[in-house]
């Protein structure tokens, strides 16, 4: 995830003119942005495709897995407002470098974890500091785009990274299956399979290291020093930012509840996958098939969001998430991994279109000097909500198992998972439907109110 074809090449590719004096400079800027997007997506895929499964084979119970998931969700968002503020105050590249460096170090350390507790500690560092890249990268791309073509531009750049990561995911599955370590189909194989996780994590750390070098060549369009001196926006509190913007104020609680509904499934999915899949290649195929439509969704969703409005794309795409837990439920009952894979096709399309639309919707709510902070406020709220959702799912599952005297490694555990998945599908549908209440276009609303005053 344009413009008039008679305009210069920068307008065609970036939605805003570059310095026309140097074609080579223009080309280097494009290459740096594309390569950073590819590297970040590749390292992220190598890490997060396999991180939850690593928690399971380290012996995490459903409750412990929910702690791992919820802490990771909270950590990835709790400091987003700080990182967004820093990106607006000191510049985007500084925060991008901090994020990539932390992801590199924590990804390298992850496979050395000896128990779920150590993995939780590494995940906290990985997400609280490493995910500082999210608001900074979003703001960096926003600096390159016109408002009317922002969604399609950001969607196109992120789509490139997501799509190319598919080849890495499939390659990792093949290499892990060729390694001497068995696939952890049951608890008896957990310890013997641990060595396989060094493959994706060490490779991911290497990719992040290369991406750090590439990101240093990015050309930043936002002059932090100039904006810090002349603008009071830098000092505006997050509460003021929310209160003064009615479209964002309307979106915030709806989006927060939606993330709660989404996160309740995340501790459950790894258990279902390891019971249904029979190889790392199959797990990789499942994620590859998710990322392919995700990349398409980022591209097409951004274009449609610009052509129509972001509210429609958000509503439709978030309703599409309902299909995913239903696919997992069908796969659990039948023992057929293809139900998980097929469920990921609409899920990937929904994810791609939704992540582009929600990011650019928050940018539409912002001023020049608050691009990082509006999105980071949204991410912070999502983090707390996802923390509660994932933890609640683990607690409910653990209490249910104890009261029913069911061990999570027995066949009866599947019944618990199946019922929970159906309930999660229902709450996802309800929370997604609430997006019909948000404003269609924040830019139109802000323009109207400014005319009235």
Pick out its properties.
single chain, 453 residues, mainly alpha, Growth Hormone, Chain: A, 0% strand, disordered N terminus, disordered C terminus
**Number of DSSP helical runs:** 22
Count the E strands. 0
Overall geometric form: globular
Order of helices and strands: HHHHHHHHHHHHHHHHHHHHHH
Structural class: mainly alpha
Quick summary:
With about 450 residues, the chain is mainly alpha-helical. The chain has helices at about 10-15, 25-50, 50-55, 60-80, 80-90, 90-110, 115-130, 135-140, 150-180, 190-195, 200-215, 225-230, 240-245, 245-265, 270-275, 280-305, 310-320, 325-335, 335-365, 370-405, 410-435, 440-450. It has one domain (about 25-215, about 240-445): MFS general substrate transporter like domains (Growth Hormone, Chain: A, Up-down Bundle).
Structure description:
The protein is an all-alpha fold and 453 residues long. The chain has one domain: Up-down Bundle (Growth Hormone, Chain: A), CATH 1.20.1250. Helix content is 76%, strand content 0%. It is built from 22 helices and no strands. Helix 2 packs antiparallel against helix 11 (198-215), helix 4 (62-78) runs antiparallel to helix 20 and helix 5 (80-90) crosses helix 6 (92-109). The protein is globular, with a radius of gyration of 22 Å. The two termini are 36 Å apart. Mean pLDDT is 81; it is low at 1-21, 228-233 and 447-453.
């Amino acid at each position: 995830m344009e413009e008039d074809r008679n305009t210069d090449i920068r307008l065609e590719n970036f939605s805003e003119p570059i310095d026309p004096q140097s074609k080579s400079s223009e080309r280097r800027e494009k290459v740096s942005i594309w390569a950073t997007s590819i590297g970040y997506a590749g390292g992220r895929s190598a890490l997060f495709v396999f991180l939850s499964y690593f928690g399971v084979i380290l012996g995490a119970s459903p409750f412990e897995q929910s702690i791992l998931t919820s802490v990771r969700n909270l950590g990835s968002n709790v400091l987003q407002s700080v990182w967004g503020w820093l990106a607006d105050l000191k510049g985007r590249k500084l925060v991008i470098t901090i994020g990539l460096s932390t992801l590199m170090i924590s990804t390298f350390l992850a496979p050395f974890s000896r128990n779920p507790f150590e993995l939780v500690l590494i995940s906290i560092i990985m997400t609280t500091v490493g995910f500082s890249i999210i608001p900074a990268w979003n703001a960096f791309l926003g600096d390159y785009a016109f408002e009317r073509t922002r969604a399609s531009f950001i969607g196109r750049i992120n789509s490139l990274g997501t799509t190319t990561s598919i080849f890495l995911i499939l390659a990792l599955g093949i290499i892990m299956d060729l390694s001497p370590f068995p696939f952890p189909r049951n608890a008896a194989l957990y310890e013997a399979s641990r060595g396989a996780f060094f493959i994706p994590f060490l490779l991911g750390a290497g990719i992040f290291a290369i991406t750090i070098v590439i990101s240093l060549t990015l050309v930043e369009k936002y002059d932090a020093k100039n904006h810090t001196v002349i603008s009071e926006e830098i000092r505006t509190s997050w509460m003021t930012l929310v209160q003064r913007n009615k479209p964002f104020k309307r979106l915030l609680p709806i989006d927060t509840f939606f993330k709660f509904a989404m996160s309740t499934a995340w501790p459950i999915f790894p258990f279902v996958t390891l019971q249904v899949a029979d190889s790392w290649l199959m797990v990789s195929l499942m994620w590859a098939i998710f990322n392919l439509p995700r990349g398409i969704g980022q591209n097409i969703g951004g274009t449609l969001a610009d052509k129509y409005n972001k509210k429609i794309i958000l509503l439709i795409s978030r309703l599409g998430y309902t299909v995913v837990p239903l696919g997992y439920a069908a796969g659990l009952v039948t023992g057929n991994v293809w139900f998980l894979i097929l469920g990921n096709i609409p899920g990937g399309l929904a994810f791609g279109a939704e992540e582009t639309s929600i990011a650019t919707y928050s940018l539409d709510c912002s001023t020049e000097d608050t691009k990082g902070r509006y999105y980071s406020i949204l991410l912070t709220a999502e983090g707390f909500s996802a923390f509660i959702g994932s933890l609640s799912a683990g607690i409910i599952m653990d209490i249910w198992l104890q009261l029913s005297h069911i061990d999570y490694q027995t066949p009866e555990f599947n019944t618990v998972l199946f019922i929970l998945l159906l309930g999660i599908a229902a709450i996802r549908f309800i929370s997604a439907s609430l997006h019909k209440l948000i404003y269609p276009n924040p830019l139109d609303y802000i323009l109207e109110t400014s005319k009235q005053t």
